[in-house]
Each structure stands twice: as C-alpha cells, then as structure tokens.
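User: Structure tokens for this complex, please. No commentary.
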Amino acid sequence: MGPKLHLQIDERSGVPVYRQMMDQIKYYVAGATLRPGDQIPSIRELAAALAVNPTTVVKAYTELERDGVIEKRHGKGAFIAQAAPSLTQSEQEDALRRSAKQLAVEATQLHVSTPKVITVVREELNALGPVRGGEVEPVKFAVMAGGH
Amino acid sequence: MESVIYARGVGKSFRGGAVAVNGFNLQVEGGEVYGLIGRNGAGKTTALRVLMGLLRPDRGEARVLGCSLWEASRGHRQRIAYLSQSQQLPDWMSLDDLSRYTGHFYDHWDVSFLRDLARRWDLPRNTAIARLSGGNQRLAALAMALASRPEVILLDEPAAGLDPIARRELNQCLIDALLHGEGCTILLSTHLLGDLERLATRVGIMDHGRVVAEGVVEDWQRTMRRVQVVFPGDAPPRDFAIPGALRCTCLGPVVTALARVTDEAQLEGIRNLPGARVYVFPLTLEELFVDWFRESSPPRESKEDTNLPKDDVFLGPSG
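Assistant:
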C-alpha cells in the first residue's frame, strides 16, 4: 500500500473532493498500480495526510465499497477487492471526454482549427510512446480555464 | 435536538447606528465544519462574537451546545474554544506559563497535546508571546484554543497572516481535532476558500449581516457552474434566459451566468438555439464567491432576486 497510493486533491478543479479520491483510486486499480488485496490507508491516515475532512474520506470509501472496488475487513482496514471491477468502457469514455471537452473549449477560444487540434493530440500521444494495451494511466484533473 | 450552534434572528448594532448583524440565522450540526464567508464588513466577526457571548445581541437568540454563552456557566463555556482575529493572549507570558495558568480553568486541559503542537510548529515554549512573530503568535493562540480539547471551535480567520506551510499545519490540526475522541464541531470564517473545499462540509455566504446563501460544499462543487452563451450577431434574442441562473450578466452577444446545473438536460434547450454556442465551466468556491458578488443584472423572472433566490440556493445539510 502506502507508497503506491499518491492521491492529489485539486482544490481548483470544481470536482467534489470525494469524487476526485474515488476516481484516482479507480484509475490506480485499472492501471494495476493497485492490485487486489493491496491495503489502502485508513480513513484517519488519508484524512490527515491530505488535510481533508474525514467525512469526505468516509464518503469516498463507502462509494468505492458499493462499487465493489474496495472491501473492508473487520479490524484490519480496507483493501482492494479481489474482483475489483476495472473501469467500464463508459467510465473510461467519461474520463476522456472531460478532458476532451476542456480541450475543445480552449481550442475554440483560441480559434484553432479542428485538424490542427487533432494533429496536436496525435503528436502528444506519440510523444508518450506506443500506447500500452488497454492500460489506463492515472488522470490528473487539470484546471479549467474558466474565469481568469 | 437543537443544533450544536444555533442562531435565530440575531441583530446587533453599534453606537452610531452601524448595523453589524441583522436577521442572522445559523444552524450547525454536531461534527460539521461550517465555513462562513463574505466580504469584509459583512458581519462575520460580530456574528462569531455574539455566539461566543462576548457581545450581547440586541435581539434574537444565539446558543452554543444549547445555551447562550452570554449567560452560561464557566463549566459550559469551557466546552467551547474561540480564536479571535486579534491577538488576545497576555503577551508577557510564555506558552508554558500560559498553559500552567489557563490549565487551572479547564477540566480537560491537555498539556501534552499543547507541547506536541508547539513541537510540530516550532514554537518556543519559554519565550514571551510578545517576542514571537505574528504568525507564531497566531499559532500559539490556536494551540491554546485546541489544548482545552473543546467540543466546539469557533475560529475567526484562523489562517490570516500564516505562511502556506503553517496554514497547512493548521488545517491538519483541525482534522486532528475532528478525529480526536468524540470529534468536534467547527465554525470558521475565512477568505481562503481553497481550504474550505477540503475542510468544510457546508459553507454560508454572509452579506449585510446575515447568511444569504448556504450550501453543502460537495453539492456546490457538483452543480454550480459558469454558463456562457455566445450568440451570433450583437445581442442575445429577446427574453433569453439561462435555466437555473442565479446571477447573469450580458455583454453584447455574450451572456454569462452563475447557474445551478443539476442535469445536463437542463441546458438542452439553449444548446439547440440556432447559432448559440454554450460553454460550461466548473467553479471553485472562490470563483463562485466572486461571481456571486459581481455586479449583475438579476435574471428577469425572479422578482425577489435582491433578496436572493433562496429556494434555489438554500440547501439543507443533506443537500
């Protein structure tokens, strides 16, 4: 556990904190950074480490348990479930779409043509090297450009 | 059962007729962290001082843990800690002196916790408070407030004057207080809205001496959006309104609104307007706050907008 789990809370994303925690843990599971049976920090540890209200961590863990991603073992803490579901296709698409939407807004505001946008995306993908088979990298929630 | 912090119809004016608090209502439940935000002069400090029993309200009721602190016994008052905006410690004393002196007045004075905080924050325990830096004086006051292991903590801009590291320590300390024993209830006023996104369960916006809007932080993060609609030509169509708009401004063909978007389908209608381009941005608390107070033309259909569209914005503790 521990060292693998590095959650990042972005106060400026406009995404509820418990949602950010859930999404990041799900991505870690999907990307096999966290594997079935791995222990995840206790509510206290995570609340203290991230300086986040404990009720928020409780909410994230409860939802993750409901989604079958983690399981609580009595007196031992919380673990990644044996049969943790990986991201569904629609969840993958949702995550991607969030970023794509932002890109689209920025491109429009900058008056960048669609082919140019696609070229840039392709270049960035290539810069990461060959895409690994179906693996999803943790997504960092970027700051929206709105309001500055 | 009555809320841990309860205020109803509180009014307080000062000599010369300045009205600080007027029709102030607030209910904070056990275990909550409630953030009071508002412009300078909105009445936050007066509201906290009335709750603490440091000011007597002209009218209305203010109770903490079921009792008006203006009249409460010492035993009751020691269950509640308060960090004022200005330095109130006897500053010729050191932290250790203060702890020895103050500890006598409290049943649950936690010396080892105070020392632990002093160590974490690098606060010298044998130096007179007056000789500490401004930021350290603030942390010393906070350490003193927390060492009484209070059930309720009221903090008036606790992070003012703290550097980012100290601020982070302060937040962590409040989390510790929430996790300790039976937990506690926290009411704080602040201008640092980023901190509230992590800490607070609910936030209330104060204006002209009362809470004019309040909401569950998660709800606001999920639903409050800046919606911008750009029309071809030089003006929006007549009678155009953004659904769910709480504040709205129009600049030429661009209409921008602070809106509650509970469902994307809510914007379907305007997305289908010919030529209209619709942008939706999430908002941080800070942006929401700025948008809220930005001079704006209220949405036409809500007549009572100057009194705020309460039904839209007032969300109960459960959302």
